[in-house]
Amino acid sequence: MASKSGNLEIRSRRVITPEGEFAASIKVQAGQIVEIGDYATSTASDLGDLAVLPGFVDPHVHINEPGRTEWEGFASATAAAAAGGITTLVDMPLNSSPVTTTVAALEVKRRAAEGQLDVDVGFHAGLVPGNEAEIEALLDAGVLGVKAFLCHSGIDEFPAATEKELRAVMPLLAERGVPLLVHAELESEVPAIQEPTRYADYQASRPPKFEREAIELMIRLCRESRCPTHIVHLADAASLPTLSAAKREGLPLTVETCPHYLTFTAEEIPDGATQYKCAPPIRNAENREGLWRGLADGAIDFIATDHSPCPPELKQQEVGHFDLAWGGISSLQLALPAVWTEASKRGHALPDIAGWLSHAPAKLIDREAGIRAGAPANLVVFDAEGSFEVHGQQLHHRHPLTPYEGRTLRGVVRQTYMRGLCTSAGGTGDIL
Predict the structure, then answer these.
(1) Mind listing the pLDDT tens digit for each residue in 94-139?
(2) φ and ψ at 306, to 5 degrees?
(3) Residue 241 preceded by cis peptide, ω within 30
(4) Are 169 and 180 in contact (CB under 8 A)?
(5) Residue 428 binned pLDDT confidence (cut-offs 50, 70, 90)
(6) Would the pTM count as exceeding 0.70?
(7) CB 212 within 8 A of CB 155
């Protein structure tokens, strides 16, 4: 098994490689996979039918440190990620304070992360009105992407980017090959919420047309600039034909959705249950099935958590007002079992999971992922047949409130390795 030097030898009848699922042995030296060998003749520690998957990559996480560390923080977020099989994550430029819209703010965030990481952590920059001239320096400083909101972000420090800022920056990102990540909702006038505790009223306040109009705008700008353009947290399945057509056209366009959109449905959300609030909203069961079809046919590239925690009091549980509650769902530790629970019901297999949670998101941030000789030994030992009941108090997330509370999920992470080292040892992550 693992040593303090990052050496490891294991075998399993279910090793998930980029080529598929095989019985194989894995030999690791100094944190790197050096050999994928034969299962039958290996004398390595035998995991039997426990699956070995590549460490997962989540390019959409709100850690909120510094400035709002009481919302989450590097220590708790990366502990939760490791417990869920995520070995690389990328922190969004909000809701930390300062927001990551300057190099100085990026350096503050990197210093805050030092010595706290159980997994590797990179950073996205933010695009807001007035910081267009900062973006090139942020790219030079090593950010992995640039995030823009097309609507109010929820905090005044991170206002929405307009077409003016997008047009100014997208040619630079195209030249540098760095993705623009877009919260794709364009707000327009809708009827006011009449009953703030009613989920249907909240859902109607952010209709699918917000996403559709924003996606149409981003496709036009992507076509003009050839900038790598990534649509985050797609909730509207009816936008998929438009996105698929843009991809067939050859545009450098990618799309993610989230575990909560693939798990929950509007029909099951009780009025006043603000733990389910997110933006865009969770929609109906038919829409959920459309998202699953989008994953199956490649219209959606991968799954990211959009882990967006807050202190429980900001969810307004006492009054149950959706209009006042913070929007966001915490799922770093639960992403794999939540996705596997629903994917396995629909006939998907573990190689699909590896593609959606590891191989494809790694491409977005130009990182290597997958179980292959020469790759970092970031591995997840997964009991695909196990199950557990979710209790927020038992998770590593800073706050226990979760819409998954009491839900039985299929699949249990037994161990996560970072470069051949057990993440339970702590301190195994690096700043990217």
Answers:
(1) 999 999 999 999 999 999 999 999 999 999 999 999 999 999 999 9
(2) 50, 45
(3) no
(4) yes
(5) confident
(6) yes
(7) no
Residue type, 222: C
CA dihedral over 46, 47, 53, 55, signed as positive or negative: negative
Token look-up 């430029």 returns 93
- Under 8 Å between Cβ of 132 and 169: yes
DSSP label of 53: E
Among the listed residues 109, 107, 101, 91, the one whose alpha carbon sits nearest the alpha carbon of residue 148: 101
Which of 89, 58, 84, 52 is closest to 394 using CA atoms? 84
Pure H helices in 249-304: 259-263, 285-297
Listed in order, strand segments (DSSP E) in 128-179 are 146-149
- How far, in Å, are 66, 119, 218, 344 from residue 103 at the CA level? 15, 23, 26, 43
DSSP 376: B
Tell me the C-alpha distance between 292 and 305, whole Å. Answer: 16
Q: Specify the 3-state DSSP secondary structure of 136.
A: helix
**Cβ contacts of 215 within 8 Å, gap of 6 or more:** 184, 231, 239, 242, 243
pLDDT at 1 over 50: no
Cα 333 from Cα 331, distance rounded (Å) = 6
- What is the rounded distance in angstroms from the CA atom of residue 362 to the CA atom of residue 342? 22
The full set of domain ranges for the chain reads 55-365+398-405
Q: Across the strands, what pairs with 148?
A: 182
The reported pLDDT for the residue numbered 2 is 42
**CA 331 – CA 336 distance, rounded (Å):** 9
Which residues does 322 contact at the CB level (< 8 Å), separation at least 6? Answer: 193, 196, 197, 198, 199, 201, 202, 274, 277
| Tokens 């998101």 -> residue | 361
Q: Which fold has domain 55-365+398-405?
A: TIM Barrel (3.20.20)
| DSSP-H helix ranges across 229-316 | 240-248, 259-263, 285-297
Q: Which of 322, 209, 331, 315 minimizes the C-alpha distance to 258?
A: 331
Q: Are strands 421-422 and 8-17 parallel, antiparallel or unpaired?
A: unpaired
C-alpha separations of 46 from 23, 39, 43, 51, 161 in Å = 11, 9, 8, 11, 52
Neighbours of 131 (CB within 10 A): 17
Task: Supply the pLDDT for residue 427.
Answer: 75
Distance separating alpha carbons of residues 331 and 309, to the nearest angstrom: 9
State whether the Cα torsion 256-260-264-268 is positive or negative: negative
